[in-house]
Amino acid sequence: MKVVTFGEVMMRLSPPLNYRLPQAASLEITYGGGDANVAAALAWMGVPAAHVTAFPQHELGHAAAAHLRRFGVDTRHCLFTDRGRLGLYFLEVGASLRPSRIVYDRADSAFANLDPAAFDWDEILKDATWLHWTGITPAISAAAAQATADAIAAARRLGLTVSADVNYRRNLWQYGQRAQDVMPPLVAGCDLVVCTEGDADDLFGIRAEPGTENGFVRMSEQLAARFPQIKRVIATHRRTQSASHERICGLLWQEGQFYETPFYDIAPVVDRIGGGDSFISGFIFGAATYGSPQEALGFATIASALKHTVHGDINLVTPAEVEHLMQGNLTGRLVR
Amino acid sequence: MKVVTFGEVMMRLSPPLNYRLPQAASLEITYGGGDANVAAALAWMGVPAAHVTAFPQHELGHAAAAHLRRFGVDTRHCLFTDRGRLGLYFLEVGASLRPSRIVYDRADSAFANLDPAAFDWDEILKDATWLHWTGITPAISAAAAQATADAIAAARRLGLTVSADVNYRRNLWQYGQRAQDVMPPLVAGCDLVVCTEGDADDLFGIRAEPGTENGFVRMSEQLAARFPQIKRVIATHRRTQSASHERICGLLWQEGQFYETPFYDIAPVVDRIGGGDSFISGFIFGAATYGSPQEALGFATIASALKHTVHGDINLVTPAEVEHLMQGNLTGRLVR
Amino acid sequence: MKVVTFGEVMMRLSPPLNYRLPQAASLEITYGGGDANVAAALAWMGVPAAHVTAFPQHELGHAAAAHLRRFGVDTRHCLFTDRGRLGLYFLEVGASLRPSRIVYDRADSAFANLDPAAFDWDEILKDATWLHWTGITPAISAAAAQATADAIAAARRLGLTVSADVNYRRNLWQYGQRAQDVMPPLVAGCDLVVCTEGDADDLFGIRAEPGTENGFVRMSEQLAARFPQIKRVIATHRRTQSASHERICGLLWQEGQFYETPFYDIAPVVDRIGGGDSFISGFIFGAATYGSPQEALGFATIASALKHTVHGDINLVTPAEVEHLMQGNLTGRLVR
Amino acid sequence: MKVVTFGEVMMRLSPPLNYRLPQAASLEITYGGGDANVAAALAWMGVPAAHVTAFPQHELGHAAAAHLRRFGVDTRHCLFTDRGRLGLYFLEVGASLRPSRIVYDRADSAFANLDPAAFDWDEILKDATWLHWTGITPAISAAAAQATADAIAAARRLGLTVSADVNYRRNLWQYGQRAQDVMPPLVAGCDLVVCTEGDADDLFGIRAEPGTENGFVRMSEQLAARFPQIKRVIATHRRTQSASHERICGLLWQEGQFYETPFYDIAPVVDRIGGGDSFISGFIFGAATYGSPQEALGFATIASALKHTVHGDINLVTPAEVEHLMQGNLTGRLVR
Amino acid sequence: MKVVTFGEVMMRLSPPLNYRLPQAASLEITYGGGDANVAAALAWMGVPAAHVTAFPQHELGHAAAAHLRRFGVDTRHCLFTDRGRLGLYFLEVGASLRPSRIVYDRADSAFANLDPAAFDWDEILKDATWLHWTGITPAISAAAAQATADAIAAARRLGLTVSADVNYRRNLWQYGQRAQDVMPPLVAGCDLVVCTEGDADDLFGIRAEPGTENGFVRMSEQLAARFPQIKRVIATHRRTQSASHERICGLLWQEGQFYETPFYDIAPVVDRIGGGDSFISGFIFGAATYGSPQEALGFATIASALKHTVHGDINLVTPAEVEHLMQGNLTGRLVR
Amino acid sequence: MKVVTFGEVMMRLSPPLNYRLPQAASLEITYGGGDANVAAALAWMGVPAAHVTAFPQHELGHAAAAHLRRFGVDTRHCLFTDRGRLGLYFLEVGASLRPSRIVYDRADSAFANLDPAAFDWDEILKDATWLHWTGITPAISAAAAQATADAIAAARRLGLTVSADVNYRRNLWQYGQRAQDVMPPLVAGCDLVVCTEGDADDLFGIRAEPGTENGFVRMSEQLAARFPQIKRVIATHRRTQSASHERICGLLWQEGQFYETPFYDIAPVVDRIGGGDSFISGFIFGAATYGSPQEALGFATIASALKHTVHGDINLVTPAEVEHLMQGNLTGRLVR
């Protein structure tokens, strides 16, 4: 198994602890992106994984690539160009009833300005078995959308499994095309999608009762009907209590069958960013490892719950750690 | 609208995280004081606000003034003298069932030793519409009490609204006069007071059932009867669960009417200091902004709840952030 | 009263906050050991206390000794040798459903390699009234077990009270002898033991229903029957909710009588390490200070609960702080 | 005296100590800009000073304004717009023979996109006596150049003294106009300029032997001949030994007379950024304070030397501190 | 050998690195005092040493005592009272031509308010062989001066060697008595004094050419003539290059003989505070260890030079480290 | 070109700044080893490089591997075993005349306990062109020496260039064999060696005047005579001024010709560790890049000088940065 992901990587800058930006004297750095986080979590779990992106050709771009490599991601196919900056985002970590806030500063990045022709997807994907992308990537620029389409086409040609986190972010689509037009042909090339009822409504006009098992199943059936390549749909449902207390469960529709997990409590939440990415990386790992869809889903959901306790965008947990919780050790007792 | 506040500003020194003082290798610095916190929160919300105090004429005094200016407070009327030190307090932040602890080191401060004649209140207040003070100020020294009386007198003369947080701290009154003698004539000059049932009992001999809505209303009526200038009384009730978990609601008595809010949970509490000051600054803002007393009280209470999630004595939240919660967004979901 | 403890002291290295080891850029240092933690907590509470151990003769050994001295422990009887290293352990602090994890790196320490003949116990214990040791000490090496036996024998000879936390850690016993053979003669010399139902089963084959009051009493009676010197048995029961939320109560069997406390909630847990050590140090202090066994047990249990809110292995709380909670102040209200 | 400055303010992000960007886990934040640094240094020395700029209307813009206010700068005339980002620069602090390096990330800032018509210069300058700007400002965009011209015109109309640091940075001029065309009419409105021989050559085609007193005088005479409004020209000469060791002297040409100072050694250099800005703020202060040009120049040069020992872009030194060195106390002996 | 010292201990609060106080977000803590530093350096070198002082009876006092204990100082004879505060001083660390600056905040300390009768000097000194004090102690208050006199009298009675660092600080003498009256009878009880030519002039009216070997010898002879108990006089001469570069040599006059060392360069200076205290502690150690006065002086001077490279007031160097340099290893080559 | 290195990687733990170990509250972590540092510096300069070692199979081993990957090192051939610990070393960074000190804690590491048969050198080296090792590796254990011999044999078989830094550390050789017996056959397989006159004397009995160009040439000739495979010998000469000030030059003997560079001053030294490793990695890069031996040596020497200004064991400089200095830019002027 070898997984390839494609998408932008940003530097994340956060005040320490729960400090607010205007009072911070320093910012902690990490790097992440919805797709890269999947590659990094898989690499940390021992799965060969490569990430493809475009970085600026200066210290910040090299620092971002170094960060991915550190956790085992193959960065050989990353481009280094002088066509733009490194995207940034500033994150204030909230607490209790104060929400976390993000100030994006990602316009005009090297990734947004990438040249789709610079990626030789047949070469990049030649040893790979799985391609993963997120709905954020085609939202960034026409060039990024084109490269996504190229990657999916090559993956289908080479027989890879393709997955997507459709992840609709209204504010991001600003280059003159509508998500509703761009996304469907891309999703049509996918075997597995992460999709919430809200995204299905916004992107594909598929209506379901949001936040119910029933709604999820009905949405999945309609998705699969519309995009016959899709065999599995996954999502988490959240019952957010506060910025410091999250509850999540996992849902899976697989060729007509529905699976779900119990809700898991996370209190306190250490770092909520990347929670969804760790769900999909957990599912990719779980589906390849366990015989049963229920176990794959359980692995994915607990992996995502654990991510909420790990600093940074990347889910630094091992399969053994997830399995320890799957065996019922949910009370966090000290491991010596 | 322009608000002027008067009172001591101290340097606060706290070990990082929940470290105890004897194990700390460094102390984090911030600055605050019950009245200055009100000016700073208002300034950060966009309301012109000035603070009046006396600082020592050295680096620490200038650092404290700089801190207030940073958040928008006008410090032009602050005195810099060589008549005393900068008051300090050392704060250990507790957790769970371990209380936070304060070691005061504020004796002989430049503020305690101020010369009341050095403040030209008619000049200081000439553009202002509101004067706010706390019961801590007249507790510090006879000179400070005299200056408070002078300020109130000038404010009444110039037609300002006057508010006070009566805030009775038994230990502070050590210069030979009784709070029970000093406070009543000062409170008599106020239009609005923050007063709990306990304070009313201790300072004015007004008895009510502490911690009940009924008690608050009865106390307010007696206060208004005793001090006819008072038109509004406000307070919070707390149901403290632990050093890390607070529950608060807001109460308002306004010319015979009673208003209250639901209880808001804060878990975890990031920084409890200044919670009361942010309630009064929230109320001053809310009363000037919203038509209804209920909305003003709601704004004040949520502003105070949010303060518990912000490091430092000063409530660094914007009106838009408070209103986001007033609209029912109480679960702290990430804002992008 | 003067207490002497004996056992290994390790350097503890932890990433800041909840960071994981592979992402940490620095490690916070503290020092501790099950027995030394008891001496240090007692010294901080004002009880003369000395710790006896062997350190390597270089900067790290001196740093560890300095750490103990800082909190008042007499380190005069510590040996400094060139027969081994300073034991280390790396601690990742978990959160919520992610457990804290320890990576031990303690093999071949100066303590493991100690020469039992180097300790002149009659001299060391000459002014002491109490000797405390833990089951970790005889687990480390034959030499350490021999020194423990020597210390107990001297203590009995000199009329000291002897206590032990039997603390069975299966993984530690690796020098070729079985805990089941080594521990009984050592425990036979004790007046007071900390022992859970699980430890009694593993070490002495005493069966009881774990985690019930009934089980604890039955176990205690059998222990006292087997080891007639034992007059008191104590333990805590834990209802761990998560790595961040602990609930504990205290239990005491004293010459046929049973005492217990309510459960105390600790949320959040700041630092769980040393929770048991602070229970026994609290009991030693409480038993010497209060007339009633119930008060001694209450003191011990609240001291242990407070330890969970203090960084480091050592319980830096004063008797006055514990008593403040014993008087019912359990909601962590700010102390000025 | 009241000084107004105009120009961009950027957030500066630096790894701690001498760390390189790709190895940094956090970045220290400060804020600065060539013109704002002058206002802030003057404000800290007690001179009323306002800075005019355009900030983005979000947390980062407010944080930058707060930073200036902290040191006493009046920020009332700063615009907050949604027309762009906050300019950033990343600074790696070198050491010895490794140079410090800056990665700029300032394109498309709120300042670059400012609307010149949004500044009412007659209102802004109405109480001011001095306007200062730098050659960086007209380099940023046509709009910024226009606003600079407007400000100079208003200043001349209102009788202010106008100064400029011509500061030619080739890389910055990227909006389609040449510095050689834009700068001369702006410099023509100045009474005082900071100009090195290299800048005079590049911008005005004035040739002189760079780095010699002679060359400086000849350049100054030609500048004054070309721009008759100019009465004073100042500059520093540097004999840089390494990134950690600087030597500077100050030069002044004033209506035909030449003044210079000895070279001052700075070893180690704590923070080189803003060294030139502190020279001009020192000269503005010195010229207003001392009778003799020599003293004004001495004050400016020592102020600049001291800046090299202060972290951040802003020269946080007081007049008394500079004068202490002017009196010959150049060996840095402890001041109690 | 056992050394006892007497004097105030203060908390020292410094911004990290070379930050200035008004820009600092945190302060690093250490503790020190001229006499306590001597005890701590000796204890760290293995010499039994006790310090006697008065601390406030709260967390800060206990923290200060803990700091001394950490490095081996016996704190049993320290008083804990509620008669005053813990003295503080704020230290800004300079660099190059910017001096370090101290803001004292030590008035009304527990030490200043001590009760001389509370010290039972015969008991305190019963096992000791050496008493050391500094001229700072009698400067603080009449009570402190009285306690100093009592200590010296007891030491003479019990046959101890008495040493003093006369250390005249004009600003400190503010309780109504003149140093010129108080110091001579105290110095008369000393066997060894640290005294510079400047101090001898100020305190005793002894004139010599400051900063010359000749002057030092003439001063020493006059001191010994005036105070016949004095057998040795020591001092360092400094050729301060900058706040970051110091040069020192040591001088000794011993019963008519003069000894001196070469100058030692310290660049950079890490922490200058306590440089003098480490000279006298080094001399006490050296005189007790080496046969020759020249070696004792060499040890003292190198110990003091090394102190300039150690953070904090206390000289954390071992005899072996000093001797390594005495053997000519002065180039700081890595020791593995 | 592809370089493979072989040797132990240790975790390095250092107090921040110049703090001493017994006063440190935290330790900064990095990872390094003489051979791994070469691979990492080359990878950072863009040369494909792999490091081969054995790590313990737990968080610390994975963290160390992650560190190497971050800077581009291929870690695929690293073994993860449960046969030992991660070697550690504690580094105190000295200053001025205080030397840096290392406390090693590396016994019984996974590397020392490696199984030589576990490395398939023909596979590992199949795409490589260069093998580099250091004299530290065979000093660690017989197994490590055997693996080194195996690697060299395979490299010769496959036609790689082989280099060694002979680096004799007397204290390390403790497993029962003499360096004088083990090293010669290993060195016999090398094309290029780093060797000082002192090492040549100690290991091979080759006498030369240490520290002179003459001595270096004579030693090189004798080395080449004894080991005919050797074509190049390189070394640096150091004129260490203090722990903070180093001077180095480079020397090269290449097939009978001698080359040398001027001395380069480094003041201050940021981090001395890895200075030699960066010389050899610089030479490997330089020799492959530049036509002339003089340029290769110049590159190597300046790369090493720059390393002294970079934190950590690894030389994070780019070829462009080195070449900037080779062009004469040695005064560290700011690069924008």
From TrEMBL, chains A, B, C, D, E, F:
Residues 2-315 form the Carbohydrate kinase PfkB domain. CDD domains: KdgK. SUPFAM superfamilies: Ribokinase-like. It holds the Pfam family PfkB. The keyword Kinase applies. Belongs to the carbohydrate kinase PfkB family. This is Sugar kinase. The lineage of its organism: Bacteria, Pseudomonadati, Bacteroidota, Cytophagia, Cytophagales.
